[in-house]
């Protein structure tokens, strides 16, 4: 699985306790609000909003939550504006982290992340401290694929296709994500997930003693309502 993206969070927390799902619902609502503010409330013309709504549906976000998030993004409800902020830093054993946040309070978010990384033997870095270790890729997940569809996707520009235990991952150039998603939908293929993610160019092997620290850090990042996506170069 690439990084620890929203896909991982959705599937880890689907059957979790209400408190865990509440944190995920907040993240999904913030993503919808920001997409509306940046591109308008119509998902047919706002691709980022369409992606955010698709993810919200996969996570079973209540319809009223999504509608409220759209109104907040459109300025119809009071509240602080949500902003996208990316942080970079290091975890146990020098593992690199790119942490994408959606927040209405940057001071709160940066303080929380600094505390978390320090707690697990890491530290918050400055801009470009680790981003050069990653590259942006479009990531699409579908349930299954046949040879004909695989060849069609390659002809359509897919960079790589990986078959995992319970789904198929299609990698694209970031700018080709929309085109590839629509290509699949036109063929009647249900897209389980689509997002631009940060992929580590090279993986870093993690020793056993650092594995537990990393897993605890992942769980705390999942629980932080400001953390939208996060990626590492850890090979666990």
UniProtKB/TrEMBL annotation:
Pfam families: TACO1_YebC_N (PF20772), Transcrip_reg (PF01709). It comes from Candidatus Buchananbacteria bacterium RIFCSPLOWO2_01_FULL_40_23b. Keywords: Coiled coil, Cytoplasm, DNA-binding, Transcription, Transcription regulation. GO terms for biological process: regulation of DNA-templated transcription. Residues 83-234 form the TACO1/YebC-like second and third domain. This is Probable transcriptional regulatory protein A2912_01890. Residues 5-76 form the TACO1/YebC-like N-terminal domain. One of its GO terms (molecular function) is DNA binding.
